[in-house]
């Protein structure tokens, strides 16, 4: 069983360079967290309350990772965000509770249906608590982790009935989820920490490149203990509802029903349908 990476490593973002939240209490209220804060408790609370969404990049607005803007958007305005926003905010939350050993890493979201490599457009975290390394990721969307899992190859992790494991493929560690009777790939990553400039470049590509799915369509996710919800709209608005232990139910959503769907199922207010029939956020700064 392998933990970590034995090869050469780029210097991570220094612990002292990680910003703290300006208002930890507001963040804890936003994620409906109660009691003593830890990596595990923050992870599940964040993952099950803050929705995944790409309304900004879908509307042609580049996504900012400035700490104060992340707090304003995801905490004060109760918006969601995609992986770079979610996990950068989570890093600041960990820093605020004095979890200092956090290493960001870039991943490729993968599919069993294709062998073609995708871009490095996903952010994950390696977090060390009391000498033990963990994979943390609150920003994958509808099908992501509920809890941190051991940062090691060969360990299967049960999270309230959802099963995950990490396998090794060449230089990559690959996260898999067990569903529909088999193991499916979620994403793969080389376990080497990256500098902030690399995160900024990947975020810029993801939120602005004309072929990025985060530019060409609307994608949203909501993680619950008992289910995963995914919404996407590249043509017709579509909802994928996967309950624990069941096959997904896929349904086309009427455009007139989209705002209520986002409010009731994703907890996102102010969603409208624009002149092109695409879901959009109505409270975005102009």
* CATH topology description of the domain at 43-196: Arylamine N-acetyltransferase fold
Strand proportion, as a percent range, falls in 25-35%
Beta-strand segment tally: 15
Please give the oligomerization state of what you see.
single chain
Largest sheet: 8 strands, antiparallel
Backbone CA Rg: 18 Å
Helix percentage range: 10-25%
Q: Provide the low-confidence segments as ranges.
A: 1-12
Strand order of the largest sheet: 5-4-3-2-9-8-7-6
Topology as H/E string?
HHEHHHEEEEEEEEHHEEEEHEE
Structural class estimated from helices and strands: alpha+beta
Coarse shape = globular
Query: What is the name of the CATH architecture of the domain at 43-196?
Result: 2-Layer Sandwich
Mean pLDDT: 92
Distance between the termini: 51 Å
CATH class of the domain at 43-196: Alpha Beta
DSSP helical segment count: 8
Topology (SSEs and partners):
Blueprint: H1 24-30, H2 39-47, E1 52-53, H3 55-58, H4 67-76, H5 83-96, E2 102-109, E3 122-129, E4 132-136, E5 149-150, E6 156-159, E7 162-169, E8 172-179, E9 182-189, H6 196-208, H7 213-216, E10 218-223, E11 227-233, E12 238-243, E13 249-252, H8 258-266, E14 271-273, E15 279-281
Antiparallel strand pairs: 1-10, 2-3, 2-9, 3-4, 4-5, 6-7, 7-8, 8-9, 10-11, 11-12, 12-13, 14-15
């Amino acid at each position: 069983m392998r933990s970590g990476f034995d090869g050469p490593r780029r210097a991570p973002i220094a612990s002292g360079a990680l910003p703290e939240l300006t208002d930890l209490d507001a963040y804890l209220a936003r994620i409906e967290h109660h009691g003593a804060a830890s990596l595990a408790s923050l992870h599940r609370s964040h993952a099950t309350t803050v929705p995944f969404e790409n309304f900004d990049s879908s509307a042609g607005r580049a996504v900012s990772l400035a700490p104060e803007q992340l707090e304003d958007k995801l905490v004060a305005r109760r918006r969601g965000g995609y992986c770079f926003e979610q996990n950068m905010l989570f890093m600041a939350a960990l820093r605020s509770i004095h979890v200092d050993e956090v290493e960001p890493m870039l991943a490729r979201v993968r599919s069993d249906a294709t062998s073609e490599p995708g871009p490095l457009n996903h952010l994950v975290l390696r977090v060390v608590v009391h000498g033990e390394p963990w994979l943390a990721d609150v920003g994958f969307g509808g099908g992501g982790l509920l809890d941190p899992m051991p940062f090691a190859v060969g360990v299967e992790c049960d999270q309230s009935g959802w099963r995950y494991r990490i396998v090794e493929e060449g230089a990559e560690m690959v996260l898999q989820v067990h569903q529909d009777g088999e193991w499916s790939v979620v994403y793969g990553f080389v376990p080497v920490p990256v500098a902030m400039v690399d995160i900024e470049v990947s975020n810029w590509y993801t939120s602005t490149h004309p072929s990025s799915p985060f530019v060409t369509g609307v994608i949203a996710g909501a993680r619950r203990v008992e289910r995963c919800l995914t919404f996407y709209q590249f043509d017709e608005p579509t909802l994928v509802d996967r309950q624990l232990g069941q096959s997904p139910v896929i349904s086309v959503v009427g455009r007139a029903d989209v705002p209520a769907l986002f409010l009731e199922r994703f907890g996102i207010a102010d969603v409208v349908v624009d002149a092109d029939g695409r879901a959009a956020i109505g409270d975005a700064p102009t």
